[in-house]
């Protein structure tokens, strides 16, 4: 199973916006650019929303059937480990192997020595074309990298083989996720991570490294854009070199996690893709849920009441809802409107405060981030929330489509 050159992960927490999302991909296809939709949902979200991986498959298949989509599409077992992979295997054909818990922990000494010995020929000055640097690699630096990353890649191998034993050879797409670490991987670290992936015989088609800066949920990139651009370009160069050196899949490409709404880096990403003629997988999640809230607010009446209720309840449970996401949000509590203030808002005021339009004076990224992590409130509304999604499907769907196409697919892949 081969994933196309361009793909985008699309989360849909409440599994109602599949058709609206897919319409954006169909529009891109009309414009001559094929981008594969990849519906993704993590184990944590399934637990909170009380859904199953099979529900994501049903949504994706239903959207594809409704729109007559004839191109590739995928369902991602997002950030899975050996602990929870079993529940995802039958419904998924894309597996994001999350080995963050093993990064920084050393493998056994015999494995480390074997890895260093196998790749000792690279302990020299290494010129990786396209990086703009010559790297001085020693056996000591190679061993240090092995101690930091080898165990994690061995774990990825175990997860991959578990999935393969059930799905069969070449029947799914594999991504290795290395993004949940403290510091970005250097080009040399990236090179030897890919060597370890090849040694484990993982046919990875995408890899998600850690980049400099903060990739907070649902808001723009926070960091040095020039440094990000340098890292992104160097990673593309390293991948191209490693594919030839280690016999990895020729379509191996970068994956950018928490890529939704990172508007300030979309330009550099597109420029680099053109320069290297490279592919990309970019994961978005949560923004569809935010567009649902915007659509509810714009619908007025009961929809606006529900949107207000979600914010007011989330504000009252700030610590509970923000805690699990502390590393990927930055909310200034003093910049949040009070519950009493929001209760007086009309549709336009609520929508402009939540919608990610940086040119709009009313936009409030703190408000947006709180609602982003407040989806548990909607879960607790139960049938009331789902009924509202059905009732206001048209206005919600319009917002979902515009968000996916205009703010994401177009700037990243079409230009």
Task: Provide a quick synopsis of the model.
The protein is built from 17 helices and ten strands.
Chart the SSEs and their pairings:
Blueprint: E1 6-11, H1 18-30, E2 36-42, H2 43-49, H3 53-67, E3 74-80, E4 94-98, H4 109-118, E5 125-127, E6 134-136, H5 139-167, E7 173-177, H6 187-199, E8 206-208, H7 225-246, E9 253-256, H8 263-276, E10 280-284, H9 287-299, H10 301-316, H11 318-322, H12 339-343, H13 347-354, H14 365-372, H15 375-381, H16 383-391, H17 393-414
Parallel strand pairs: 1-2, 1-10, 2-3, 3-4, 4-7, 7-8, 8-9, 9-10
Antiparallel strand pairs: 5-6
Helix pairs in contact: 1-3, 1-17, 4-5, 5-6, 6-7, 7-8, 8-17, 9-10, 9-13, 9-17
Attribute tags:
415 residues, 8-stranded parallel beta barrel, globular, TIM Barrel, 2 domains, alpha/beta
What does this structure look like?
The protein is an alpha/beta fold. The strands form two sheets. It has an eight-stranded parallel barrel, surrounded by six helices. It starts with 5 loop residues before the first strand and ends with a helix. It has helices spanning 18-30, 43-49, 53-67, 109-118, 139-167, 187-199, 225-246, 263-276, 287-299, 301-316, 318-322, 339-343, 347-354, 365-372, 375-381, 383-391, 393-414; strands at 6-11, 36-42, 74-80, 94-98, 125-127, 134-136, 173-177, 206-208, 253-256, 280-284. Strand 7 (173-177), helix 6 and strand 8 form a beta-alpha-beta unit. The longest helix has 29 residues, at 139-167. Helices cover 52% and strands 12% of the residues. The model has no long low-confidence stretch (mean pLDDT 97). The chain has two domains: 6-103 and 148-285, TIM Barrel (Alpha-Beta Barrel), CATH 3.20.20.70; 289-398, no CATH class. The protein contains 17 helices and ten strands.
